[in-house]
Amino acid sequence: MPAKDQESLPLGVVVERRALNNRWRRHEWRPVTVIPGAAAKDPKGEWTELRSGEDWVQYHAGTLPLELFPRETDGYRLNLMQTPPRLFVVMRVSDDTDVTHDAVPSLVTACPYEAQDYLDSGDDIVEAVTMPEAVFAFVQDYVRRFHVEQTFKKRKRKRWTEREGGIGRRSSVPQEES
User: Fold this and answer.
1) Does residue 4 sit in helix, strand or coil?
2) pTM recorded for the entire structure
């Protein structure tokens, strides 16, 4: 059950399969755009071909929710100030035989910090796509309603003493001497 301040918007994820002239990889998957308010579509199911060219094909690969949370509004604000603002699509590379394609969209986020967390793992494809105007308005309205400015509080260091314990503290059990 979503939190009372959490909101979401369904986004259709459009991915492109492009042929590569490479002996180790025949093709690559790359998210190219999103469709705001798209009909429900399971990313692990059949994809709908939208357009194609000589060495590429674009698919509506599934519909995922863009979920917004009050604690992430700082990241959303940073993103909205960029030119242009972006959405980040995370695609999971899969060897699963139940999946039709070898890369499946798993998340769409407007928070660059969350996208960075997925990039750190190195196991996922994370690509930025331009944020459509309707999604920009949705995220901007959310930030306006839920962002709370956090004041920076510098932490003061405490002086360590043996009585307070901690790393390197002496044992309270007397040691036997040999």
Assistant:
1) coil
2) 0.80
pLDDT above 90 as % of the chain: 63
For residue 15, the tally of other CB atoms under 10 A from its CB is 27
pLDDT in tens, 41-87: 999 889 999 999 999 999 999 999 999 999 999 999 999 999 999 99
d(CA 67, CA 90): 14
SS3 content of the chain, % helix, strand, coil (to 5): 20, 35, 45
Helices (H), ranges, 59-148: 73-80, 112-121, 133-146
Are 61 and 135 a contacting pair, CB within 8 Å?
no
Domain locations in the chain? 7-146
